[in-house]
## 1
Amino acid sequence: MEDLQIVEHVVRQDPKVIEQCVISGIPREDMHKVYCDPWTIGYDERFGSKVRLQQGLMYYRPNIDDSQYSYPLDFVPIFNCDTQEITHIDIPPVRRPVNKAPPNNYHPAAIEASGGYRKDLKPINITQPEGVSFTVKNRVIEWQNWKVHVGFNYREGIVLNNITYNDKGTERGVFYRLSLAEMVVPYGNPEHPHHRKHAFDLGEYGGGYMTNSLAVGCDCKGAIHYMDADFVNKAGSSQTIKNAICIHEEDAGILFKHTDFRDDSVIVTRGRKLLISHVFTAANYEYCVYWIFHQDGTVQLEVKLTGILNTYAMNPGEDTKGWGTQVYPGVNAHNHQHLFCMRIDPNIDGPANTVFQVDARQGAGEVGSTENKYGNAFYAHRTKFRTPQESVSDYDGSTSRTWEMCNEGKLNPYSGKPVSYKLVSREVPALLPKGGGLVWKRAGFARHAVHVTKYQDDQLHPAGRHVPQTSGDPSQGIPNWVSGEAGQQSIENTDIVLWHTFGITHFPSPEDYPVMPAEPMTLLLRPRNFFERNPALDVPPSYASTPSSQLAKAKSGGGGAIHGSDPSSVSV
Amino acid sequence: MEDLQIVEHVVRQDPKVIEQCVISGIPREDMHKVYCDPWTIGYDERFGSKVRLQQGLMYYRPNIDDSQYSYPLDFVPIFNCDTQEITHIDIPPVRRPVNKAPPNNYHPAAIEASGGYRKDLKPINITQPEGVSFTVKNRVIEWQNWKVHVGFNYREGIVLNNITYNDKGTERGVFYRLSLAEMVVPYGNPEHPHHRKHAFDLGEYGGGYMTNSLAVGCDCKGAIHYMDADFVNKAGSSQTIKNAICIHEEDAGILFKHTDFRDDSVIVTRGRKLLISHVFTAANYEYCVYWIFHQDGTVQLEVKLTGILNTYAMNPGEDTKGWGTQVYPGVNAHNHQHLFCMRIDPNIDGPANTVFQVDARQGAGEVGSTENKYGNAFYAHRTKFRTPQESVSDYDGSTSRTWEMCNEGKLNPYSGKPVSYKLVSREVPALLPKGGGLVWKRAGFARHAVHVTKYQDDQLHPAGRHVPQTSGDPSQGIPNWVSGEAGQQSIENTDIVLWHTFGITHFPSPEDYPVMPAEPMTLLLRPRNFFERNPALDVPPSYASTPSSQLAKAKSGGGGAIHGSDPSSVSV
Ligand SMILES: [Co+2]
Ligand SMILES: [Co+2]
């Protein structure tokens, strides 16, 4: 973070920047009100890769507590990290003086001034008087048959290792390692120099490095276990973020329920989930990352986007040309995507795994034929990925496409199908920047929803190990691992890694401003043919009755049902 | 429910059924252990539409508390509702005697016998000591600027009417009416008579009629307000389900957060949601329906599937041919889809609304061109639906497709775009039964993700008002409303209805058995260009500090931040 603040310090004193501020309508004595979010330059062919550069996205704060994102400036200084100087300024052909609109703030004084806080929210208290249901030994969490090591590094943030599930006394491997390995946020405005806005927040900055300390203790509710994050920083020394990782349980609603209509015998069982989370701030945006374990064997990744839109200046009445939205007078929020790459190193009952693409398909035979008279036949079509090249695949919603990570050496005794975990992910937009263009070249991982590679020690980073100022000529990371000779290796029945790109396309609107309500996206890793039955049947029910207990109740006029020990709900 | 039990009573005494039971290996003195789930016949061309018929899906319970779904029988009696007789039995060419496997039960005695309940779950208590944040007057709920009338009928279950949002003192229309209007569950096994398994649970049975009474009070946690459901039943008399509708609040996690990296000024605000829900039991399956209101103006529909798979008999070693999965020895669970049709009657600042399909598209100009030099241009392409015929559309994940319901007569003052709500729905499989086949003809609504019609008083039921034993020749409901003359009406700037089909394709696995962990699916109706800013900024933050308060704190060594009144979390 210190690095970032140096840029701001330098721009405020640079005469060329001061000159541009004056042109923008900012008095030269107001340079302490000028703010700079330094982004790594991405790649700019004019300057190449030899000198470490930052592009300074510039803002103005009329008053110390105003949000600077309502006062974007229209020029972009380039900062040389080696000489600590401004070496260039990108100035647009059409100038846009600093916004004259009143501030659009979200802090308490602003809310109080505009009507105050709502007073009709009664507290919800969530307590665990007997403590939590998990144990922590060093960095290993045990909870509800799950066991997981919680790692952390400057880049990926939380890394989950050695994830196992205790299946009736047998500790079974599920995943060797799970992480968010990379992300890219391409912006869709083709006007220079906005094409450089396509941050790789993990590879260029580090999701761990930017993680919030939750020391104030109020991002989550209930009984929280915090872990610190310790990692090596850019200077090579150790750094600690206190309370970086939040670990807590939440009620998860109905886990299962069934009523028999004949006799009203019923079972209803409530679920519980374990969340291991961190929040990181990437300049204007925040990313809240939740790794969620469920009692039914499901692992869920949820990402919530919040924080503040990246904004750019616009003149009154200016046409955004469809590349952005005026979210407040004088504030243009450009179209963008948030594309995440999840790295899944499966260990489904051991490291020898194989990936299948699974598509729902209509059965053969036309309507009226003997084999499909009524046309209702359908089945799960499975395509085995034999090589990395074959594994390059996109999402298809119409076939309910999923991807299964299987151990073909172990079959479910009932279904006869290989034990597996399937990836169920529905938020999978196409990479919108065009083939052959800058983002497409640099963010090769984002061209497709799924790539599978043979495990290699040095393949952790889907856009390459070193990302800043790579040109994408040639592309780093995944495109290399799935093409040429590497792309022809066998990935059957061996130690493999599945890389999954998911995310959203974001066309801003005024509702997202001045701070954005959290936008959630989620994906599931679900056991299929892994267990012999629903593994959560032994979770104590909140209510259960059987046909025989119902019968006894009818005869005696009382009793019959088993109530759980959990205090039940209160009617109001 | 009485109707259903009559069928079971009759089959147990019918000599032809008894004969089939004996062939299946059930002693004739055990007929009280034979169970029947009567499904409406769907449509069977041999019997036509003139006589009301039920198909009896047959099961056996070795002991009163055993789940009958582990002992499916292989024949299907046809019950004539008028004469209350068995008029026919469908007998498969290959016989499958009753299952010999031990029971697979989920009730407490069975769990105790196989190791007992887990003992390591500590309670989570959720309390609202000051009461709830909503008010109820008759059937109108007010909560966090929302106002909604909660209706209920035998067919759709919960119906939400007159949904408005109080925007700083102005009560603005959002939706006139929301409901789940129809559903179909087609099974994918083409062997006779499984093609008849494609229940329209709302149109043939009634989601209201089958709703669970939550009188035991333990399906939800916290402070619950229950509403009874009163409706007219088949006999024409009034019927009440006590505590049919559950209304309660839940904590919703982070609503928004932002930290400024320079000064660590921060705001974090927790969200709250209001859930209006019911659970209905459709023979073996349960559907949990949650209508969820959020503080940021979003309306969410979540459906959880739980209960028990529909099962059919299989012989040891029998090949399921890909049409199903052996989930337990002798138990074949067939492939199926759950396709729901949501009826949305928008009222976006009044009834004159228009629907646009919105797709993310790459900008014009090849990489290297003046207008798109780096290839990064993309925008939201909007297609106006001018007629019902034009509105027939499918989901496209690659373009992040959404559908916007707009009031073109009212533009957002900042963005200049029409006020709107967009439908964000990502679980939208194609209807798998083939074009021209039985299900395709009867479930016309499910052929496409979206249809838009001009509002008509008598158009409430997407598969037709009367569904049982319709042949689909011609198709009832939506296909008629979007074709011919009706399909050419103008749906611009008028009172319209959007019909949305969503759901999942379900290939069963042993984890889903003997009772299925809840499988959630969800969709959002989100305000876009409807508000001038994030409408939840006045929700009291759990923590807030400003640059100036941080500065003061740094100078004084104390204070600065505003803590919310909510008790914050406890570290463990
Ligand atoms: Co965004
Ligand atoms: Co299902």
## 2
Amino acid sequence: MFKAAINAELLKDAIAALAVIVDEVRIKIKPEGISVKAVDPANVAMGIFELGSSAFDEYSADESEIGIDLNKIMDLLGIAEKNDTVRMELEEGNQKLLIDVGGLSYTLSLLDPSTIRAEPRVPQLDLPAKVVLNGADLRRAVKAAEKISDHLLMGVSDDTFYMEAKGDTDQVRLEMGRDQLIDLKAGEACSLFSLDYLADIVKPTNKVNEVSLSLGKDFPILIDFEIANGAGRISYLLAPRIESE
Amino acid sequence: MFKAAINAELLKDAIAALAVIVDEVRIKIKPEGISVKAVDPANVAMGIFELGSSAFDEYSADESEIGIDLNKIMDLLGIAEKNDTVRMELEEGNQKLLIDVGGLSYTLSLLDPSTIRAEPRVPQLDLPAKVVLNGADLRRAVKAAEKISDHLLMGVSDDTFYMEAKGDTDQVRLEMGRDQLIDLKAGEACSLFSLDYLADIVKPTNKVNEVSLSLGKDFPILIDFEIANGAGRISYLLAPRIESE
Amino acid sequence: MFKAAINAELLKDAIAALAVIVDEVRIKIKPEGISVKAVDPANVAMGIFELGSSAFDEYSADESEIGIDLNKIMDLLGIAEKNDTVRMELEEGNQKLLIDVGGLSYTLSLLDPSTIRAEPRVPQLDLPAKVVLNGADLRRAVKAAEKISDHLLMGVSDDTFYMEAKGDTDQVRLEMGRDQLIDLKAGEACSLFSLDYLADIVKPTNKVNEVSLSLGKDFPILIDFEIANGAGRISYLLAPRIESE
């Protein structure tokens, strides 16, 4: 059993953040909220998504698992107005999700979860450095780097967080000291990441006040922020690229 | 003789509503206003368009008929500002239409009406059910249906008007009771229509308060609304599709 | 030595006005400001660009010449907010330009000026007629003409400035009398210009109050207006087309 109502824009934002990683997901439904763990097809990025029951206007659920095509949901939500309420109810047998948006009733066929890649194991990483910054700053640096290169170097050196991209001839660098950051835990950290992935991942951070980045030396980065006014959270784990000289 | 002045946006809206059916039209000019009847090239949709002299700031006309390429007019009006006045005057011999928009004078060559498909005969239909609803509601249902299917079923059942689209796996349905409608004349009605045509036809209804739909059982639908603040009217007649099972 | 700071939008507008003529330019840097003279690859249009030191918030420079790819600069400035300050500094040896926008540091490799077409000689022309008009009026006439033709005839006849385009069947004409113009110096003038070029050239005039046009009979046109609130100026010289009958 699953029956819930939620603000349309909030749901849109949450699903958009997840959709940058995969198209088809297994959603775990529990009495305390819904969650997803998914890996992108190339095994480079992982998304860990949690939306607690408090994000919903109404929420009641038993434990179950459903398979969903995120593009279909995004498409349907495209018709909703910002302040519409989206009502969802799982049909007996978990084969169909009934969605009501402003009087329009959708009957969405669900995917068999067993046909979707299983939940990945989240690796335990010891990431020595941690930086908390404004999401818009992060997004702007990534956009600037994209103009110049395919890769972005991110690191912490003493009390400074830096992002740097090098093109064939040009270079862009952003440095943020402790004063310009919301928080900084210094530690040895310097890793290179694919801008293809980063650009997608930071898209939803544009309206996020605090994004936390955990970094190591040639290690994956953990990008982590709250969604739904604190009622949910999304974390991305992105594998590093090895610099070819 | 034809000489008229009209608000640019009002003219744009009126022509846009007509242009969803055909590109080239015969416009009938009379002392009391202008009118067009046209059928789309595939004979599926008919548009019946009337714009009375009261829609114009200035209007004086003898009876005549001109042939016009609607795309050209739309293109020229694209340059007009919302509140510009468009002045039109037919040249002696009805070969050219002089159009003035904010000091810019266009000389538009007209088409020989005899080269354009003749006015169709409007069939007399006995459509038992009639629904009056807000244009934005209609447009939203059609947009939602398009995400899922190529066809939309529209009907009246007891005191409820419904629109329903079925895709391979998913389904969308809008039901509106007597309370949610502006008016309802109940009657046996249930017909299937091509969303290709419907999507075009309902585009101009987005800012229309009252759209009236007349329906029958596997019969054409008559979609009808006022334009130009009541000084004009456009009706579309759309042939039904037969459901292939 | 060159070190300067300037408002991001002002710089964007100035470079956009220049970029309609060429992609790669030699910029002459002098203590009193920067300047560019460039001809388009087909030798049809010339741009003469000057931006005085007063356009900058900070400015200090020795004489030098640098080669720049305008598209790269436009691309980077795309990330700047309207009110950001852009700081630029030339590296020792004039090989790289350091650009800082809101904490993001770009290192832009410059082009060897000797690989860029040399500054053209600006011809001395005796253009008898001169018209000063609002930039938005000019832009609107050019946009209207583009709908109909590839060429625009511009001329002065008695006390009237006119622009006229003829298509295969249609025609558009704008006439402006002395009263509708900011200034008019009457003189024999009537020349035909390519709308391909004109459309690009008048794009930046949309927010310009006074654009001056100097014209002759089958002669180039000089289009001239202030940029950066009067601290700079751009002039375009566009060669006439010969009307093929």
